[in-house]
Design a protein that fits this description.
It is built from five helices and nine strands; from the N terminus they run βαββαβββαββααβ. The longest helix has 13 residues. α3 crosses α4. Strands 1, 2, 3, 4, 5, 6, 7, 8 and 9 form a nine-stranded mixed beta sheet that branches. The protein has 246 residues and is of the alpha+beta class. The protein folds into two domains: 95 residues, Pseudouridine synthase I, catalytic domain, N-terminal subdomain (Alpha-Beta Plaits); 137 residues, Alpha-Beta Plaits, CATH 3.30.70. A hairpin with an 8-residue loop joins β2 and β3.
Length: 246
Amino acid sequence: MKRYFLKLAYNGTRYHGWQVQENAHTVQAELEQKLSLMLNQSVTIIGCGRTDTGVHAREYYAHFEVETFPFNEKDFVFKINRFLSKDIAIYGIVEVDETMHARFSAVLRTYKYYISRKKNPFEQEVSYFYNGFLDIAKMNRAATMLLSFNDFTSFSKLHTQTATNFCNVSKAEWECVGEEKLIFTISADRFLRNMVRAIVGTLLEVGKGKMTPERMVEIIEAKNRSEAGFSVPAKGLFLEKIAYSF
């Protein structure tokens, strides 16, 4: 069997997340169906992570194994993109060693959350609109506190089957892009279900003046989801970059 890595991107608006689900349209299901047809063999694909319903990926990696692969990279990329829906794009494919794993070999993941400060009909599916007052300095002060902790139970979706709620966050910051866009960037070795959206919602509460930056420490130490803020809509969240050790 030969193992191949795919580099891709997708707009998650029409999908119920990455992972295959019964009676649901997912990115993984779409890829497996089209790859199986194109390669004339059953293909199971493993992704670098599970994005939730409506979440997008600007850079995503997945791997699969096949007995035969009768294409060069250029021809494969051209042909598979003709098969796939317009909201999924394959950028490249490379053969890798069988020890390389799309999910477990990843050492760093970066997400960005986009907030539009001005109503924009062209970005309504890929950003969260909020034009109220926000104290960005306080939001960044609170975000910095995330780097001092590694148990993020307070920002995790309840009743998941995750073995541990520990994550090593190496970056968390807000950036204003002109007067119309606000972007939150967070990097970590791994993320919990709903973690980024819950963190963003909590930081917005800080920015609105509903809680102090120091309250972030109390929320994290409480290890209780009900202590944190609301979860922002999925549509503004992008898996932005994946880093590997090879």
